[in-house]
Amino acid sequence: MDGTFVGRAQAADGPHVIVLQDGRIRDLTAVASTVSGALARGRLDGGDDLGAIADGLPPGWSLLSPIDLQCVKACGVTFAVSAIERVIEERARGDASVAAEIRSQLEETIGAGIRAVVPGSAEALALKQALIGQGMWSQYLEVAIGPDAEVFSKSPVLSTVGHEAPIGVRSDSSWNNPEPEVVLVVDPAGEVVGATLGNDVNLRDFEGRSALLLSKAKDNTASCAIGPFIRLFDKGFGIDDVRVADVELVVEGQDNFRMEGTNRMTEISRDPLDLVAQTMSEHSYPDGFVLFCGTLFAPTQDRDEPGGGFTHKVGDKVTIRSTRLGMLRNTVMTSRDAPKWTIGIAAFMRNLAERGLVEKA
């Protein structure tokens, strides 16, 4: 395996920071007890050898989300297709049954226009004025082609789930979907130091009823999956590789339903580094942050009945993969029934203190 990958694993005594490099797994915890601190201070050498990558983790260890103290931020409506789908949700008022008709109307009216302009440009402003004149403007088009990107807080610190963990969808949602994304990892100085994969679960019915329900639609127990590892930037992998990455998605249901899709970063309307800059423009992040870059994937494939569109069912297997970032796989549950999030910042720090590792954080 080429490159350097950083992650976290749960052992009997608590979480450990691990590094995968040169075919070996190293436990970095005695040197840097948090991923946030390891990336901030560049403490990625040393540690205890845990064996060959091919042999897997030690018995009884399991993967966690590869981030800990970083804030979890996300950008939305960064692809033309997703912009159209957000407008559909808004006009459908969260009702999936009328989405197909609205979709055909909007694609014909605004699809080509928003694909052709650079957000924030004079051409984008002219398109905005034209759409306003036609009664076609939307708050989602404002963040799709206007100067300011949509940036929101996706999930509280330490609440993300990792590879093979259940992923949560609200039990009272009837129209929702996975969002396969590249997630940038940014240190406290604002430098993008690596990337990983993420699933920014989306509730189309909640946000469609009102954009003010965004937080309720996005932030629920187990609704944010990240992993499997952070691939650090080096001479062999960097931001240019992120810009051309393909992120593949497969959803497999217990009802024999199967859906596939691809999120192509080459089609993003805003450069990933611009998204990072906008996230940091008037905010600082002393423990660093991660940033979901958005997705062009907005599934329209019917699942149960014609015109009904797609929505998750309990038991869906969601697999997200990208050639140079690995594979993130989760099984859908309701957020109500998913394992409760119990290890917050205080509990995490108590665990490090009991192990004599607080000064290494």
TrEMBL record:
Domain Fumarylacetoacetase-like C-terminal: start-end pairs: 156-332
GO terms of molecular function: hydrolase activity
Keywords: Hydrolase, Metal-binding
Statement: the UniProt record of this protein carries the keyword Metal-binding: yes
InterPro entries: FAH, Fumarylacetoacetase-like_C, Fumarylacetoacetase_C_sf
Family classification: Belongs to the FAH family.
PANTHER family on file: 2-DEHYDRO-3-DEOXY-D-ARABINONATE DEHYDRATASE (PTHR42796:SF7), FUMARYLACETOACETATE HYDROLASE DOMAIN-CONTAINING PROTEIN 2A-RELATED (PTHR42796)
Name of the protein described by the UniProt record: Fumarylacetoacetate hydrolase family protein
Organism expressing this protein natively: Novosphingobium cyanobacteriorum
